[in-house]
Amino acid sequence: MQPVATLLLRAMIAVLIALLVFVQVVMIPGVADETARRNPGLAYLEVPGIIGAVLFLALVQIVLVCVFALLSLVRADRIFSPHSFRWVDIIIGTMLAAAALLVASFIVLAKDGAVNPSILVLAVFGVVVSLSLALLVSVMRGLLRKALQLEQDLSEVV
Predict the structure, then answer these.
(1) What is the DSSP string of the chain?
(2) pLDDT one-digit tens code per residue, 112-138
(3) Taking the domains of the chain in order of start, what are their residue ranges?
(4) Do the beta carbons of residue 9 and residue 1 sit within 8 Å?
(5) Is-contact 123 105, C-beta < 8 A?
(6) d(CA 154, CA 156)
(7) Is-above-0.70 flag for pTM?
């Protein structure tokens, strides 16, 4: 079952990345343009908004690529190798960068008076989710380190 599950997960990740590229290229600029037309006083935020949204989704794509690589290691039965730590570290750093980007975006919006309660709630939610996931992956990194050590110890005994 594991080979099938990893193959399906990798296929789903590829589809997600393709959808995110579509959103970055087509939807975000369209929504930004429409928003700028509806709110001419905030139209100067259109380009920074596009940059921030595309960058945020690029961070999501980086995490998906790292998970794809980790699934490849699982499929090759090499997940318990020092090589996997690099991918996990990239995931943690990317999630922290996403939280920082959300805070910076909120500060820009607040400075320009474009903040309403729903944006505040979304910003806080996004930061909490990003930081929580970074902490969760950090804990899982510790478990991976422990499993790698146990596997090495077991191989020495046998």
Answers:
(1) -HHHHHHHHHHHHHHHHHHHHHIIIIIHHHHHHHHHHH-GGGGGGHHHHHHHHHHHHHHHHHHHHHHHHHHHHHHTT--SSTHHHHHHHHHHHHHHHHHHHHHHHHHHHHHTT---HHHHHHHHHHHHHHHHHHHHHHHHHHHHHHHHHHHHHHHHH-
(2) 777 777 878 888 999 999 999 999 999
(3) 2-157
(4) no
(5) yes
(6) 5
(7) yes
